[in-house]
Amino acid sequence: MMARFVSVSSPQFHFSVRDFPPPSSNLQPRRLEVSDRRFPVVPIKCSSSEPEDGGDSAPSLLSSSSSSSATEVSTNSWTYNWYTGIGGVGMLDTAYLTYLKLTGSDAFCPVGGGTCGDVLNSDYAVVFGIPLPVIGFCMYGLVTALSTQLGEGNLPFGISKTNGRFALFATTTAMASASAYFLYILSTKLSGSSCLYCLVSAFLSFSLFFLSLKDVKLQEIQQVVGLQICLAIIVVASLTASYSTAQPIPSRSGDIELPYFSTEITTSSSPYAIGLAKHLNSIGAKMYGAFWCSHCLEQKEMFGREAAKLLNYVECFPEGYKKGTKIFRACSDAGIEGFPTWIINGQVLSGEVELAELAEMSGFSLDQGNEANQLQ
């Protein structure tokens, strides 16, 4: 019996089976011939229910990288917000000092006798002809602008973020070096004088400097230390060259003694001022001051000779001032921190106050003022 098979063909492969004679007695096996065309190799990959190590490694790494990047962005944003906040406070502080310096005004007198005017009016308050508060304002402004742009990731003029961080670090290092030098000047050349606003500015500068060190990586420490040393040398050398001809100012609260003295009031009092002074005295309002304080004298000049005598004025250093002198007990009990200070109906007003504001705070009406004018 002969077997016949139909050939099967496809574009990729071809089978052909030929007829063979019936098996003989010797039972020889049939021969199968396959054409020269080869079978195509189709790779098939079987997947199991459990993920292979290599299969999910890329998504896992991508997720980890994204999480790390998001954490880094959040940390940088928090840091730059601190930069911006501290820089803004520094701008306010130096803006006030700039106003005092340019207008020749005195700052609010601190307890202890020394005033910021001693420092602001000294030769050390000018660097190469530029008022020091102006330079401080510009430096704080630069820090605020850089930190804001770095936080938004949009630096101007095509500056890269790396260069922006470098400029921010260099600026804060220069500011901290200058502040350290100024503290040395304040403690040696201006011994006895105090400047609360200057100390606040120094504290802010150091805060910005240590904040910038937070972003320094371990492998960058050697480069950073070298940069700090170079910048500190340049800043100190520049300030020393500027102050080479500066002379220390006499201190008003250091080693010298100030005997108590009375000040003469040159202005005359108006009927309104006299009426207001009487009203303030009747309600128990008090003015606390010190005999050397120029603001206290200017406050009395607003009232005039006659009205000033009617004020309930408390002298906080009635026995004069010398090193180690304590403030008068009544002033310390009232918590006085500067001169002049008004306490009216439990409310505290610091510095010179206009007569109209004193009248409003004390409840002195316009009718009372008109009545005082008529009596005059």
TrEMBL record:
Membrane topology label: Multi-pass membrane protein
Organism: Eutrema salsugineum (Saltwater cress)
Principal location class: membrane
One Gene Ontology cellular component annotation held by this UniProt entry: membrane
Any GO MF annotation of the entry: oxidoreductase activity
Domain Vitamin K epoxide reductase positions: 76-216
SMART domains recorded: VKc
Chain spans, region Disordered: 44-71
Listed Low complexity bias regions: 60-69
KW Transmembrane (keyword) present: yes
Protein name: Vitamin K epoxide reductase domain-containing protein
Superkingdom per UniProt: Eukaryota
Family per record: Belongs to the VKOR family.
Keyword annotations from UniProtKB, A to Z: Disulfide bond, Membrane, Oxidoreductase, Quinone, Redox-active center, Transmembrane, Transmembrane helix
